[in-house]
Amino acid sequence: MMAPLAELAQQLARDVRDAVPRLEAVEAQGARPWAEGKWTRSQVLGHLIDSALNNYHRVIRAQSGEELRFPDYEQRHWVDAGGYADRSWSDLVQLWAQLNVQLAHAITRVPAEALPRPCLIGAGAPVTLEFIVRDYPRHLEHHLRQILEGEEAAGRKHPPFARP
Questions:
Q1: pTM of the full structure
Q2: pLDDT tens per residue across span 29-66
Q3: Which domains does the chain have, with CATH numbers?
Q4: pLDDT of residue 105
Q5: What distance in Å separates the CA atoms of residue 99 and residue 85, rounded to the nearest whole number?
C-alpha cells in the first residue's frame, strides 16, 4: 500500500530535480536585488532553504506527539542570520535541492494517523500536519517563480493559504 502522501512527495522530488538546471542557469544574477529593500535571488533561495528546514522539522516532530507548538518563522532574521547573500549560488542550489529531496523522502514515511495532528505555528490558528505538507509545494512554487522570472514575479504576493 502506498503512503498517503507518496504521490505529493514524488512530485515534489521531481519538481526539485527539474528546477536545479533552471536555477543553475540564473547564477550570475543571484546577488542583485530587484528593488530597494527586496531580497536578492540568493536570499530568496535561502528563504526556501529555511522553509525546507522548518518544514522538515515539523514533519518529523508532528509524528511523535499529540498537539505540537512550533515557533513562528522570523523570515528576515533567518535569511540575514543564514548569510545566504555571502554563499556561492551553486552551493545554495545544491543545499536547497538535497534538503527538499530529503523532505520529500520523509513525507513518504508519514503514517496516515499523523496527518490530522494539530500543529500550532507561532500565534496562528492550528493547522494539521497534512495541511503543512500539502501547502509546502505552493509556497515553493511561488518563490521559485520569483527566482526564475525575476522582476516580473518579484512583487507578487503569496497566493492565499487554502486553510483546511
A1: 0.88
A2: 656 676 677 888 999 999 999 999 999 999 999 888 77
A3: 6-152 (1.20.120.450)
A4: 96
A5: 19
